[in-house]
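Translate sequence into structure tokens.
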Amino acid sequence: MEKKPIRSFHDLDVYQNSYEAMRSVFNEILPKLPAEEKYDLINQLRRSSKAIPRLIAEGHSKRHQKKGFQKYIDDAMGESNETIVSLSQTKDLYAKHIDIEVCKRLIDTYDKISRQLYNLALAWTKFGERDKL
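Result follows.
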């Protein structure tokens, strides 16, 4: 498989995956949660799932600054892990309201996103070290 050049954050697989996962959270999970979770679990899932692609995009714009880029990728990984916890809570507390298989799929997707972010951070560090040689 030939790798395409990365010209913008849209070209990053992790951005595409996180954006699509966010859409699934909004379309398949949030509308099914009970109203009493509006200011807690629903709000948290909204914020954390939306933050990941935003942080990737903002981090990409600072890719020329190693520490600047790294901070945004680390923050995106934190938001991804937070989303995993919120989805796990949703699955365990509201199994009657949601499709458990959809929730499990999203947990797996966000786990993959967290790993992609970690690998992107490692690759970026190694890329910067090559410039010093």
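Note: The chain has a mean pLDDT of 90.
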